[in-house]
Design a protein that fits this description.
Elements lengths: L10 E5 L2 E5 L9 H6 L6 H17 L4 H13 L5 E2 L3 E2 L3 E7 L7 E6 L5 E6 H5 L6 E7 L5 E7 L6 E7 L10 E4 L4 E2 L5 E7 L5 E8 L8 E5 L6 E6 L5 E7 L4 E7 L8 E2 L9 E6 L2 E6 L7 E6 L7 E4 L5 E8 L3 E8 L2 E8 L5 E3 L9 E5 L9 E7 L6 E6 L5 E6 L11 E9 L5 E9 L9 E5 L17 H4 L3 E6 L9 H5 L7 H16 L8 E6 L1 H12 L4 E7 L5 H6 L10 H4 L6 H10 L12 E7 L8 H13 L6 E6 L10 H18 L6
Helix pairs in contact: 3-13, 7-8
Length: about 700
């Protein structure tokens, strides 16, 4: 089968005194957001090319079909297909969810206190029947347990339609509400709910109230955000006395509050937005509680009485290099989290004595801990705690804060068997190009030799202040058990070491993200975890910006790269402020459109613009036609230009899902198939097809 080549058509671009040519920009359509709703509007020539590329990828991966089936069987075999979540006690019902062996989607159940009858009030498999793609944005029952509101995206475009259903007879109430962001928040009196509407550029900037039994056309606009960089969201406070509206972009936020008894629903400004200042508000025990980075780079918690929102006092002071998280309230206790050196800790405070202590769940050091409430009634000493780690499946305990009694109530079962003692987890630090220490988490099989013979799957993200998780993944064992060491790099751009760690990897410091990752690659070779040409790098979305940049810089060190929905034509996207995310990211990636210095900096590292005539490693690129976050244009252009320029005979595959969104196809089976495909590619280029 011939290699597909995308037609070249020169467009001469100019900006800030620079001129350059883009030969593949013609595939971008001005009505690109319409394609998210209606795929028939896609340029037929582009559709034909994508189909040819998919066929080319499938043909050249045909020798992995047996391996893909084996990987699917392995991964599925590590999942307890028939499973139930732990129950949450509401006011009158216990609520929980379950999955079945035959199904692809979750079912939600409930049981009334004192009764044996179990009611399935949501069956994802029934709702998804006949749909090529199916995703829920929210599934929420009214406070009185009578009405179900839910939102569905059946294209992958993240345009969610809200439906309301009477739980007593299963009938739909009223008309659907279209083009929402998906979130639904019930009013305290259950007569209405609140939601965000997407604007013409797919941005949630308006909050509406929908009163049950009325037409969506009559819905009341509660809040309208006028700054196009900001989006709006809505939530409830812990004491159930206030509605909160958050207007925010990646670095700045502003809060409004509405008392539940305010019939006019008029939002009151809490603290006026200030560039670079983030804060969130909760309400409990007569106080407003604020988690903020105002005069506290890594955040602090302050509080003020309801009667005087200007009378703030610090409650949890700032600690340099330690990210202070928000609070979970019980009648007598406050539970909170903090993160330092890419590790999370949980603390419990006695409200009466104001004494605080760390809650130690396990002796294991490199873990992802978490807490949740067990019931709606907060007059309790019990909470639910849990953790997992790269080698330990998740474990959940009911925990009594007062007596410290701990009961194991659920443990992630790996049906095909798992022994955590077969694996070694290491937390190391790598010195970066400027002396900065970069945390890395390494997971390997104890039998894997550290003599340079092993392959490495090196993962990274490093954007938006999002920290890379250090959790258990049963699917990764299919690589680790085949002598591929999994390495997660906690590079700058995330929040693993506080706000300074993020700040040093964004805007005009973005290159630190890439340099950190490259320093990790070199370290892994130096310390004999692997060798040159045995590293496969992997990242998705903004992690795809990372991987597509790194292959430009160190192709000689890499065996391959897996780029999932990669943000690889970031200069073009950054300069197009009509796209859904561009304006909201100007404080993350800078503003190439309006600032020459920003333009020059972004252009100097933009993966698409820096592709060259040279050898590249093996590369698999995946994208989705209905992705609203990273349009399919970017990876498609990137692959076409790379295919035209590269001087090697290494594999270069583009795989475009025609019925999927940013997170890929929907349903458990499809999700496993996608992982199996990616892993089969990694094993193919590693010479492990028969393992």
């Amino acid at each position: 089968m011939k290699t597909p080549y995308l037609r070249r058509e020169e467009e001469v671009k100019t900006a800030h005194g620079y001129t350059w040519s883009d030969y593949y920009s013609w595939i971008h359509q001005s009505n690109c957001l319409e394609i998210l709703r209606d795929k028939t509007k896609l340029n037929p020539e582009v559709r034909k090319y994508l189909e040819e590329d998919n066929a080319f990828t499938e043909k050249n991966m045909s020798d992995t079909k047996g391996l893909q089936k084996l990987l699917f069987k392995e991964i599925e075999g590590r999942i307890k297909l028939e499973d139930e979540s732990l129950k949450f006690k509401d006011q009158r019902y216990e609520y929980w969810s379950k999955t079945t062996k035959e199904g692809n989607y979750t079912k939600y159940l409930r049981k009334k206190f004192g009764e044996d009858k179990v009611e399935t009030y949501w069956d994802g498999d029934v709702e998804a029947k006949g749909k090529k793609f199916f995703n829920t944005g929210d599934i929420t029952v009214s406070n009185d347990d009578k009405i179900l509101a839910y939102s569905i995206d059946d294209k992958g475009s993240e345009y969610f339609t809200i439906f309301v259903r009477n739980l007593s007879d299963g009938k739909i109430i009223g008309e659907p509400i279209t083009e929402t962001a998906g979130g639904i928040t019930w009013a305290y009196d259950d007569k209405s709910f609140f939601y965000s509407k997407l604007d013409k550029l797919h941005r949630p900037r308006q909050i509406f109230q929908h009163i049950l039994g009325t037409s969506p056309e009559e819905d009341k606009l509660i809040y309208n955000e006028t700054d196009e960089r900001f989006t709006a969201s809505f939530y409830l406070t812990s004491d159930e006395n206030y509605y909160m509206i958050s207007a925010s972009e990646h670095t700045t936020s502003e809060m409004y509050y509405i008392h539940k008894d305010d019939k006019n629903l008029k939002p009151k400004l809490f603290i006026k937005r200030e560039e670079g200042v983030q804060y969130s508000i909760n309400s409990w025990a007569g106080y407003f509680w604020m988690n903020t980075n105002k005069d506290a780079e890594d955040f602090k918690v302050a509080r003020c009485p309801h009667e005087n929102i200007n009378q703030w006092e610090d409650f949890i002071p700032a600690k340099s290099g330690t990210l202070i998280g928000g609070l979970t309230f019980l009648k007598d206790w406050i539970v909170r989290s903090e993160v330092s050196n890419a590790l999370s800790k949980i603390y419990v405070r006695d409200i009466k004595t104001n004494k605080e202590e760390e809650l130690i769940i396990t002796e294991e050091k490199v873990i992802s801990p978490g807490i949740s409430l067990m019931q709606k009634n907060k007059d309790t000493d019990w909470i639910r705690i849990g953790y997992d780690s790269p080698k330990t499946p998740s474990r959940f305990f009911d925990y009594n804060i007062k007596t410290k009694e701990k009961k194991l109530v659920k443990e992630q079962i790996v049906p095909s068997g798992h022994n955590g003692n077969d694996y070694i987890v290491e937390r190391l630090e790598v010195e970066g190009h400027d002396g900065y220490l970069i945390p890395i988490t390494i997971t390997r099989h104890k039998k894997t030799k550290l003599d340079g013979s092993a392959h490495v799957l090196q993962y990274g993200y490093g954007s938006y202040g999002m920290s890379s998780p250090i959790n258990f993944s049963s699917s990764r064992l299919s690589l680790i058990n085949r002598d591929i060491i999994w390495v997660t790099c906690h590079i700058r751009g995330g929040l693993e070491r506080g706000m300074a760690h993020w700040r040093a990897g964004k805007m005009l410091n973005k290159k630190n993200t890439f340099s950190d990752f490259i320093s990790c690659s070199k370290y892994l070779i130096e310390k004999k975890y692997t060798s040159k040409k045995k590293i496969i790098i992997f990242g998705g979305s903004a992690g795809g910006l990372l991987t597509s940049n790194v292959v430009n810089q160190i192709p000689n060190l890499l065996l391959g790269a897996i780029m999932a929905v990669p943000f690889c034509d970031n200069l073009t996207t950054n300069m197009d402020h009509s796209l859904p995310l561009s304006l909201g990211e100007l404080r993350e990636f800078a503003d190439a459109k309006n600032n020459k210095k920003h333009f020059e900096y972004i252009r100097s590292y933009a993966p698409y613009d820096n592709l060259e005539k040279k050898d590249y490693p093996h590369i698999l690129i995946t994208t989705s036609l209905s992705d609203s976050r990273v349009l399919f244009d970017e990876p498609t252009k990137y692959c076409a230009k790379l295919r035209y320029l590269k001087t090697d005979n290494n594999l270069l595959f583009l795989k475009c899902e025609m019925d999927a969104g940013h997170s890929g196809k929907s349903g458990r089976t499809s999700a496993i198939e996608e992982v199996a495909f990616d892993y089969a590619f990694a094993l193919k280029i590693s010479g492990k097809l028969d393992t």
